[in-house]
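Appendix B, record 7
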Amino acid sequence: MINIKHLLFYFIISTIFGFGYNFLIIDGIPIIATPLETVSNSVNLSEPNTEPMIREISLETAIELHDKGVLFIDARAEEYLEDGFIPGAIANDNIELLHDDLEQKLGYDTAFVVYCSDDDCGSSEEMAFDLQDMGFMNILIFKGGWKSWTESNLPVQLKDE
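Structure tokens (predicted):
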């Protein structure tokens, strides 16, 4: 039978080795996740990014960008779309189809906004990171999402329109 002291010893050594290796390599995984940068109304979307960026935006910035015609993507699952979505948004949670659609409409450098139901919904961040992995460079996440949009009595588009 394996001795508990041996297990503890191997666990501690493995942990130290893992953290040490992660610290020494160039692209190590951060121990504590860094929050996404929040951009204000002054976000300049015309500047090309040299590396992929995912940033958060507020309701005010989302309204401003929507008024400027920036594309919105609804990351909610199909069953949540019955209540509607932000006008003009692409409502598609299939990442492969979405990739093809975005590549045709925008290319990889044009900014777009991803949102889901509310602050606590992780679908928008998950989709944003998936799209970033596929090569999209300028992704904005509207953290307030659908809840914030509708609570502000902003226009909505129904699925059948």
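Remarks on this record: The mean pLDDT is 85. The two ends are 67 Å apart (CA to CA).
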